[in-house]
Amino acid sequence: MENISLDNKNNLADNADRYLTFFLGDEEYGFDIKCVREIIEVLHITSVPHCPGYLLGVINLRGKVVPVIDLRLKFGLPKCEPDEKSCIIVVEFEREFVGVLVDAVSEVIDITQEEFDDTKFLDQNVNDRFIRGVGKIDGQIKILLDIKNILAVDEAVSV
């Protein structure tokens, strides 16, 4: 797995926010870097009975039990077996840690206010509670997710 600096201070423009970007299939998404604690390779995940399908189970991270969700399944995408590019992004949520399985981590990017669009452009029938906005970087679109909303609707994350 490629090293990605999670440093929040390097070369950050005054009006920019920093995001860790990653792939689910061919689409690129991002989380606010402030909630990301670390990126780890996929470890053995112990399943927990009677949990939603997207909650894969728990891992032992240096003696701490951390629940792991499969973001593909959470978003209704087809299940995909982890490969050498797959990783777990460990995020902090309400003073607890949660692992988020993704297909591959891309990079840390700065997104200025000029490059950011909120979700007002989405149709009213689209459930956008997980989407913070869209970043327009070098002609590409990156869906910026609100990890707190993704996890907040999950009672199951409190394993």
Query: First CA to last CA: what distance?
Result: 28 Å
Helical content class: under 10%
Give the DSSP E fraction (strand runs of 2 or more residues).
over 45%
The radius of gyration is 16 Å
The global form is globular
What does this 3D model show about the protein?
The protein has 159 residues and is mostly beta strands. It has one domain: OB fold (Dihydrolipoamide Acetyltransferase, E2P) (Beta Barrel), CATH 2.40.50.180. Helices cover 6% and strands 46% of the residues. It is built from two helices and eleven strands. Strands 8-1-2-11-10-9 form a six-stranded mixed beta sheet, with no helix packed on it. A hairpin with a 2-residue loop joins β6 (87-93) and β7 (96-102). Mean pLDDT is 83; it is low at 8-12.
Chain-wise SSE layout:
Blueprint: E1 16-24, E2 27-32, E3 36-41, E4 55-61, E5 64-70, H1 71-74, E6 87-93, E7 96-102, E8 104-112, E9 116-117, E10 131-137, E11 140-145, H2 147-152
Parallel strand pairs: 2-11, 5-7
Antiparallel strand pairs: 1-2, 1-8, 3-6, 4-5, 6-7, 9-10, 10-11
Short overview:
The chain is mainly beta and 159 residues long. It is built from 2 helices and 11 strands.
What descriptors fit this protein?
OB fold (Dihydrolipoamide Acetyltransferase, E2P); 2 helices; 46% strand
